Hints:
Distance between the termini: 114 Å
Structural class: alpha/beta
Order of helices and strands: HHHHHHHHHHEHEEHEEHHHEEHEHEHEH
Number of helices: 19
Strand content: 5-15%
Helix content: 55-70%
Amino acid sequence: MVHDEPKKDAMMSVKNRVPDFSRNLWLTMGVFVVVAITFGFYAYVEKKVDRANELRLQSFLLADELRQSSDDLTRMVRTYAVTGDPVYKQHYQEILDIRDGKQPRPAAYGDIYWDLVLADNQRPRSRGQRASLLALMQQAGFTESEFARLAQSKANSDLLTRTEFAAMALIESSTPVAEANRLKANRMLNDVSYHQAKYHIMQPISEFYRMMDQRTLAAVHSSENMATLVRVMLAAFGLLLAFTMWRAYRALHATLGCSVDELQGRIARLGSGDFSTDIQVAQGMENSVLGWLSATQINLAQLDANRKQAEEELRLYKDHLEDEVQQRTADLVLARDAAEAANKAKSVFLSNMSHELRTPLNAILGFSGLLCKDTQLSKAQRDNLDIISRSGEHLLNLINDVLEMAKIEAGRMALACAPLDLGDLVRDVADMMQLRAQEKGLRLLIDQASNFPRYIKGDEARLRQILINLVGNAVKFTQQGGVTVRFRLKSNDAQHHLQIEIEDSGIGISDENQQQLFKPFVQLGKQAADNMGSGLGLTITRQFVQLMGGTISVKSTQGVGSVFLVELPVDKIEAEDISALEKIKTEEIVGLAPGQPVLRILIVEDQLENQLLLTQQMNRIGLAVKVAGNGEEGVQLFQSWQPQLIWMDRRMPVMDGLDATKAIRKLPG
């Protein structure tokens, strides 16, 4: 109990300090609000002083305008009586009309105006709204007695205009002006009666000046006195605010035990994890926030020491686990590298094998074609050759599909974007597929929309393969009815999209099989397997469409048919590209006429069967042929023989086709 008493006293001391600071803070806030209100009232009073001065000036200007208009009228009528110039009568009437609100008031009319007009009869300022002078005086806030003086002066001025109009009428009574009339008119405008009338105009204005001056000056002095009083109050409340802020600061310092900056630095050090530095507390501040922070620092230092000990124990355990994880990771990396190497080897193997298989297949197909064209064969022999050709073409298609998939998986597939004649491409595919459709008794329809783009930019080979695969599949799986191929162009401001729709009346595809349709090596149903496909056609087609930035989808109902929809972004080509395409199509390869020089063809090919096939095909059309077995021999033969055309293979021993082509292009000429 004895040791607990100081702690209780300390807690009570801190609890007492916090309300003391709060009271000082709230008091400071209250004084600040009072200062703000007083300042706002001071601004209002200053504005009131400005408004009183403004009204005072405006009142003087309106009364002065009445006086000035009377003087201007007198000046214009007297000048007219002397000169007879009608422009002064015009000015006289215009002054009356402006004063009575019959004509718009010029801008800044209270300033010098008619002296500027007299020089060239040009109005120096723009016109505003119509407003009579009496109406403006009524709006100015004059007292009844003040306004009565101005109204009386205005009435007297209007009365004097009768005399002035009579004088102008006398001038105009004879043509030319009789000198006697001019003298009489001048006497009317300068006699005692006229000056007495002017006195009756100016005397009420003078009384108005005196009355208005007393009233407005009193209002200005009242506002200025109020502003002085508010300034004194504002200064007093400002001093009170400074005093309460000082008291609040002292109370805050006593509560915190130090300055705010020092406390913030201590807290930031603890927040950064530095628990080892002791917090020094000044004498008498043990029960402040800084004292509590010092106690917290001691506890945190102890906890930090315990944490470091636990971390050391955990580190030793983690080292053991990391060694085991590293070992297993190394095993996984070896397995991954082996798998990647196997996958790469598979792609290289497929590429190499496809090349090696296509070389003899091309020879088989080529020599079969030569036998059919150049050899007299029996029907049985020709049928056997047809079987060989069809089997070879089927095997070549399978190899091409496998090679395309190998390129796609290896990431070596690239587009060749160039101008192309889409109309010719569609006709070629239609002619090719028409024969297959006729063999099965099917109709093949090509539907081209009116906006069908004949010339576009794209990869002609890939687009041709997409059409052949999709139309070929439609013909393959349709037994009756037909196939319709539709072409549409969907355009917007940014881009054109070619829509290709292939609709058939075939066997259709179930919803379950549609999910597997574009996966590789998938053949759906017995009929698909009987057609001896590779199961890669639709997979390759989808890869080509996606590579072109397009989409492909299918809608199908079993027993009714299927619809494949392809949408590809395309670019229309310029007129010069169209002209170039048309020129290329008009150029035909023709046979050599008798007497023409023989065209020299260099064949660079390492496969003997390909050498023989190409040589026979070239000789059939009368071309001179020489053969090189590799790229190095090809370069030498080119230098010595100078052929016009080179048939260059790519993959050859000693020097491949690409290196040989580069070497030939570097030769002189």
